[in-house]
């Protein structure tokens, strides 16, 4: 093999190492090999995966910290320092000539001991998108150093709250401790992010600590803006006001439906974007079906106030939904936005009308199911990552930020036009994982996302209209139409949501198992 040059007592460098050199490296007394070359830098160069496999066969630890430029950036020095802190000593590092590895070592050793902790990947958010992405990353490269920044100690399966509100699920089945779902190889930082410093590849935490990264994944979800509706926060959970959008309130929905008497029930939907565009209707249909079964529906005046102009954003599913609007006798009022609630008086206020003439209409109620306005989290909206919408800017296909090539976003926080659903995050997570690994290897994004989202519209207990679609409303069914035709109510779709999706979520999606979610190369996206 090439000449080995000692740089420090436990660190040496050499030019290019090849798989067949590993026995000689072991014989020379080294315990670890560190590759500082990006794959494909020159013809005939062995890639890092082959080198890592050969190293592991000889009992050597192996890490890949690729740096393309001879000018060492702060993030490169921090990544090198993190690798040197983790690897068994002595370490042999290599690049094309050894000079780059030497410069990286010098820069890493010049960092203060109090410098930011550095990880290969930092993920902001421990919800479905963040955990699934971490699991997909570790499935592909188990030796990555990953930190997940998440202040909450509870993780929720939010799609289950519709069925909690209908009395189908026990609320406890929709929650786990964060420790239960956190990937074992990931480091959980139980804090909140206060600021992003993408030019320095670091984030600041609430306690002032800095965390550095080689790649950043942003997935903190969105903010339910209950305070945007005057009078709403103080009456939630009483006076007949409820919402399936909160864990503690979904059981109250079921209580109100079970105890309903003749009167008026209002269901609301705010302007887009919101989590699962069909969820406001799901609560309404399931409530109506319960009242229908008990012979109460004729005595209950049901109104659906939607701030949008249409019943559903994808026209193919509207005919099936309109059948249920008519069956249940629902008064559908498009262009009607909830702007205030007087809980004690049981009166809701709605803004109605076009751009030119708007009026405020008051509607008394006995039950009010509210879906709050939804916006990007405050620390995202005030950050350099956000676009004009307040959500994180990202390429719709690669989910990479348009300015910082080592920064990706997924889930509800990303400023793309797909539906904000758990099913979308399930499809996005492997795409981001593949593209993050490409960024770590100095490559361009490899995988593409087609905008897939799914909304199982529970039109009655036992039947679902399974809406599956991508960018531009293109239908993207997962099953052949002879099995499940998403444009028609289906018992099999109900079985999928009721029995299959919860275990798929807990034991599949959050564990890096990508059933029906294999990432596609960019050129093969549907």
TrEMBL record:
Highest taxon listed in the record's lineage: Bacteria
Coiled-coil stretches: none
Lineage: Bacteria, Pseudomonadati, Pseudomonadota, Alphaproteobacteria, Sphingomonadales
Full protein name: Sulfide:quinone oxidoreductase
Bilayer-crossing regions: none
Domain FAD/NAD(P)-binding: 119-233
InterPro entries reported for this sequence: BLH_phosphatase-like, FAD/NAD-bd_sf, FAD/NAD-binding_dom, Prot-tyrosine_phosphatase-like, Sulphide_quinone_reductase
SUPFAM superfamilies linked to this entry: FAD/NAD(P)-binding domain
Organism (species): Novosphingobium panipatense
Residue stretches making up the Beta-lactamase hydrolase-like protein phosphatase-like domain: 7-110
């Amino acid at each position: 093999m090439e000449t080995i040059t000692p740089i420090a007592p436990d660190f040496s460098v050499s030019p290019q190492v090849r798989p067949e050199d590993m026995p000689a490296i072991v014989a020379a007394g080294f315990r670890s090999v560190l590759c500082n070359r990006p794959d494909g830098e020159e013809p005939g160069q062995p890639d890092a995966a082959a080198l890592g496999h050969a190293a592991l066969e000889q009992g050597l630890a192996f890490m890949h910290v690729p740096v393309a430029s001879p000018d060492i950036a702060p993030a490169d020095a921090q990544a090198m320092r993190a690798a040197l802190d983790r690897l068994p000593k002595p370490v042999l590092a290599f690049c094309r000539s050894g000079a780059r590895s030497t410069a990286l070592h010098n820069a890493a050793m010049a960092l203060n001991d109090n410098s930011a902790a550095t990880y290969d990947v930092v993920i902001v958010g421990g919800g479905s998108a963040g955990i699934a992405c971490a699991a997909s990353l570790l499935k592909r490269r188990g030796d990555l150093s990953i930190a997940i920044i998440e202040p909450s100690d509870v993780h929720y399966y939010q799609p289950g709250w519709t069925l909690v509100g209908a009395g189908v699920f026990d609320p406890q089945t929709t929650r786990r401790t964060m420790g239960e779902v956190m990937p074992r190889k990931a480091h959980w930082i139980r804090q909140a992010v206060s600021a992003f410093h993408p030019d320095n590849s670091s984030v600041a935490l609430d306690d002032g600590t800095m965390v550095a990264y080689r790649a950043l994944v942003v997935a903190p979800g969105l903010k339910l803006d209950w305070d945007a509706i005057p009078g709403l926060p103080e009456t939630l959970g009483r006076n007949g006001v409820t919402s399936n959008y909160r864990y503690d309130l979904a059981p109250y929905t079921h209580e109100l439906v079970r105890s309903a008497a003749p009167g008026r029930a209002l269901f609301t939907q705010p302007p887009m974007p919101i989590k699962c565009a069909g969820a406001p209707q799901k609560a309404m249909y399931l409530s109506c079906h319960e009242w229908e079964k008990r012979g109460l529906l004729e005595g209950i005046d049901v109104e659906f106030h939607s701030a949008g102009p249409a019943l559903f954003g994808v026209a193919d599913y509207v005919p099936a939904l309109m059948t249920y609007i008519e069956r249940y006798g629902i008064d559908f009022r498009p262009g009607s936005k909830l702007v205030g609630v007087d809980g004690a008086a049981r009166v809701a206020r709605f803004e109605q009308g076009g751009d030119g003439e708007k009026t405020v209409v008051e509607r008394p109620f006995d039950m009010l199911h509210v879906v709050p306005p939804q916006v990007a989290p405050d620390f995202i909206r005030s950050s350099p990552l956000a676009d004009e919408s307040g959500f994180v800017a990202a390429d719709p296909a690669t989910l990479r930020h348009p300015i910082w090539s080592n920064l990706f976003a997924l889930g509800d926080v990303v400023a793309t036009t797909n539906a904000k659903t758990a099913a979308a995050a399930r499809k996005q997570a492997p795409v981001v994982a593949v593209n993050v690994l490409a960024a770590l290897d100095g490559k361009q994004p490899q995988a593409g996302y087609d905008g897939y989202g799914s909304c199982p519209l529970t039109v009655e207990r036992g039947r679902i209209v399974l809406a599956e679609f991508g960018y531009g409303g293109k239908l993207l069914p997962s099953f052949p139409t002879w099995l499940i035709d998403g444009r028609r109510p289906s018992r099999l779709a109900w079985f999928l949501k009721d029995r299959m999706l919860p275990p798929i979520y807990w034991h599949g999606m959050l564990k890096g198992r990508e059933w029906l979610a294999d990432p596609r190369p960019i050129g093969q996206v549907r």
